[in-house]
Give the backbone structure.
Amino acid sequence: MSHFVSSGTGLPYDTSRRGPSTSAGNTGLYLAACAVAGRTGLIAEPEAKSRIEAVLASLEKWPRFLGGFPLTRVNVDTLAPTDTTFSTVEGLSQLTAGLLAVKGIIPAYAVRIDKLLTPMNWGDLYDPDRGLYKGGWSLIQKNFQVQQKGWL
């Protein structure tokens, strides 16, 4: 498992080729995997906690948009944005799910995780006229002008 994680940030690489980026979605899934692996004995509990703590430390430094949402793609080692065109709801949902899984499995992280989740105002991403979440955010234009392929 260590081969797929940056030793500097504790974040998972986006691919097995260890490319320079990671995503909020992969990070959320990795957090959940670490918590479950520690709980079930697939890895030792102290190792699981060490991995989770490294990811949480990186998430606390991760660049944000709209005040509280982490960008969906960053450099795995520097945390610099790798995609300034848009951030998407599905990656943020996966990250949120992973954080909630850790919080449920290891309640000692609840306060730290709440500090990451509380600033995320999901209402800012919702379009009530269409009844859908907005998918694209332009970091350059600072608005939802981005059209994503395959989205309504």
About this structure: The mean pLDDT is 88. The beta strands are 21-23, 64-65, 69-70, 73-75, 126-127, 132-133. The chain has one domain: 2-133.
